[in-house]
Amino acid sequence: MRNTIKKPIASDKGEFVVLCGVEMRRILLISVFMTLCWACIVWSLQQNRQSIQKLTARLRASATENPEYWRGEWQRLGIAAREKAYLYEQWLEEGFLEQGMVVNRHSDGRPSGECDSLLFSSLRYAALTKLGWHDKAYRAWRGIQNAFQNGRWVRHPKCRRKSTSRDMIVGLLVAMTQNPPAEVRQLQKLLNIVDSTGGSVDDGPFYVSRMSPGMGAIMRLMSQQHGVPLREIPEDVRMGFSTLELDAWMAQPGYTAHLNALTLWIELELTDHQPRSALRSVAELIDTALGPLGTPAIKDQRWVWAGHQLATLDRSNLFFEYMELRSAGALTWKTEALLLKKLLEMPQFPDDRLPHNCDRRADYLWQRHSVEYVPRAKATCHETFNGVDFVWMVALLTENL
Question: Which 3-state string (H, E, C) describes the chain?
Fold first, then answer.
């Protein structure tokens, strides 16, 4: 018996051609859009070389005024901030942990915010480590381990229904910069997930769980620093490169800007501790293309530019202001003391209790636009927030106290 092949009818051919045409136009439009974006970034970085140098010089000059006075102020304010952070951490431990991970609480005792817990639990661990509270940090890390279930990192053991997103894993990478117990094994778990999913951090849709090139670059650098053999690093991770310039240029105040600020923080943290570590970036490609015309090198200014871009998005965001100063090499006793003063004066962080929803709309300030720093009119106090945003900033500003 002969095999017969069904010939497509004319209408099928027409539909196929139309679908192919639509898909090709979509790909073409996306390609043109991305090309224009990169062209704008290259032009912006090229045109602002001298202004970035001037910004760096201005920030550093202002930061070094009267060092002895500001050293005393930084110590005084730092001690006060640490005492308050210790109280916040105590209150958090007493009532804002579910299976060892951070949550908020409704007035009737029900937990809330479980589906953001991996991010904020990771930031808490990093903060406790920087504060030198190692016993607390060890217990916090043990809690985070509860989020690894059935071969995947979940947002929280009570939030398995939602796929894990990129920002949750960026938080986990923040924690991994602080050398937690069995760090290489934890990193290998993450690499295995990326390998098994073909380039994602979980089983969610592309816009939720797909690993970005910048995340790949960070995981690649971490793997290299810990001696993971190249053959054990998934191809999607090996091919990663930092897109911080594009991300900062396109960011909007709030969630996306905070994610970019955390990425910038991780890049600085990793390269500060191991300065010779190579982090591939778009800026390197631009420098290569421009050759001797590109002086000073864009790759040497990319962090300053990104930090300034983020800070100008929302000047009320203290984390963004901190990142602008750190990326410019302008963190001094004076600048840290001034940031501590602002932090301690914020009414969103009460002295005698953890923050409520009637103190501010946002549960974690630095992740939201500053319009959410104030409460809604006539808001009733029915939810208490965990206060990790305060502990995080205190840890960054008093690390060397």
Answer: CCCCCCCCCHHHHHHHHHHHHHHHHHHHHHHHHHHHHHHHHHHHHHHCHHHHHHHHHHHHHHHCCCHHHHHHHHHHHHHHHHHHHHHHHHHHHHHCEECCEECEEECCCCEECHHHHHHHHHHHHHHHHHHCCHHHHHHHHHHHHCCEECCEECCCCCCCCCCCCHHHHHHHHHHHCCCCCCHHHHHHHHHHHHHHHCCECCCCCHHHHECCHHHHHHHHHHHHHCCCCHHHCCHHHHCCCECHHHHHHHCCCCHHHHHHHHHHHHHHHHHHHCCCCCCCEHHHHHHHHHHHHCCCCHHHCHHHHHHHHHHHHCCCCHHHHHHHHHHCCCCCHHHHHHHHHHHHHCCCCCCCCCCECCCCCCCCHHHCCHHHHCCCCCCCCCEECCCHHHHHHHHHHCCCC
